[in-house]
Write a structure and sequence with these properties.
Blueprint (H helix, E strand, L loop, with lengths): L1 E2 L2 E2 L2 E4 L5 H12 L3 E6 L6 H10 L5 E5 L5 H15 L4 E4 L14 H29 L2 E6 L12 H21 L4 E8 L6 H7 L10 H17 L4 H11 L8 E4 L5 H8 L2 H13 L3
The structure holds NADP nicotinamide-adenine-dinucleotide phosphate.
């Protein structure tokens, strides 16, 4: 645990097989953390380990099997981490996926899967690390929210609902655990180039003769263009790295990326009818 007489800090990152999670695991390892890179299928660790090799961080990263919808794997990974290092300084609740489709056409099973992963999975992870963090008297929990946690766009109601839930939960949590030295922050990225888009497009819910076909096509067109031109996700990993190393995390919300600051501001300043008219204009383009 100790190197050069110094206690090494530890971090647990969920969804570390790809995208932000992979990059955050590398970023924290480069910053000197012992990282548990948690993924539901450890057979998907090749990309992470290659990136770790390039970054010279292989020795600082251990892979753990953890599905955020499976309580046994959560408890197992947290207990292993405590046995191995004796502490959990940082939890990055990153695992997530995006269910797409208009409300009427998304089956209940998909709504449940969305909430189980993005929201209840994050709640379960948070609850699992709190006893150790409280006992230590410190800890940092980074919640991967989204601009969709502040702004519900048509065609992504399930995703928005899950991220709005993450926002409300984290706001309450921050108040509750601050007296124990535990810090909570929400990272709210706009669109970034990761696998989440392709996975979401592949599983878009829609009916063949759908009355929503036009608007769905319009929304998907915008989402595709956004995904293709989205910025490098390393920016988000670097933000998480800077946050966990801060002496004080003074804000609850850290928006980052295209539109992430502007959209919530517009949401607060513009009258609702303007927002609605603009959204309807966009959806009409698909007809
Ligand atoms: N990319 C963006 O534009 C964007 C913007 C805002 C917020 N976000 C958020 O950022 C987070 C990471 O997404 P990403 O963009 O990096 O996408 P990604 O590359 O698809 O990564 C998602 C990760 O979550 C994992 N995951 C999914 N379900 C899981 C479960 N039940 N248990 C454990 N892990 C699970 C995936 O594992 P598998 O490899 O096994 O599927 C994968 O490692 C998500 O919370 C997402 O909502 C993304």
């Amino acid at each position: 645990m100790a190197m050069h007489g110094k206690v090494e800090k530890t971090a647990l990152v969920t969804g570390a097989s790809s995208g932000f999670g992979l990059l955050i695991a590398i970023e924290l390892a480069k910053r000197g953390y012992r990282v548990i890179a948690a993924m539901r299928d450890p057979e998907k660790q090749a990309a992470l380990m290659q990136a770790a090799e390039r970054a010279g961080a292989v020795g600082s990263i251990a892979v753990a099997r953890l599905d955020v919808t499976d309580a046994e794997t959560i408890d197992g990974a947290v207990a292993d981490m405590l046995r191995r290092y004796g502490r959990i300084d940082v939890l990055v609740n990153n695992a997530g996926m995006a269910v797409g489709g208009f409300v009427e056409e998304v089956p209940m099973a998909a709504w449940r899967a969305q909430m189980e992963t993005n929201f209840l999975g994050l709640v379960a992870m948070t609850r699992a690390v709190l006893p150790a963090m409280r006992a230590q008297g410190h800890g940092t929990i980074i919640q991967m929210s989204s601009v969709s946690g502040l702004w519900g766009i048509p065609g992504f109601g399930a995703y928005a609902a899950s991220k709005f839930a993450v926002e409300g939960f984290s706001e309450s949590l921050r108040h509750e655990v601050a007296p124990f030295g535990i810090r909570v922050a929400l990272v709210e990225p706009g669109a970034y180039r990761t696998a989440i888009w392709a996975k979401g497009f592949a599983e878009m819910h829609g009916q063949p003769e759908s009355p929503y076909a036009g608007p769905l096509k319009a929304v998907l067109g915008i989402a595709r263009r956004t995904a293709e031109t989205a910025p490098d996700p390393r920016e988000v990993a670097e933000l998480v790295g800077r946050l966990v190393d801060k002496r004080r995390i003074s804000r609850l919300r850290y928006p980052i990326g295209r539109g992430a600051r502007l959209l919530p501001l517009a949401g607060r300043l513009l009258p609702w009818r303007i927002i609605e008219a603009a959204t309807r204009r966009v959806m009409r383009k698909g007809r």
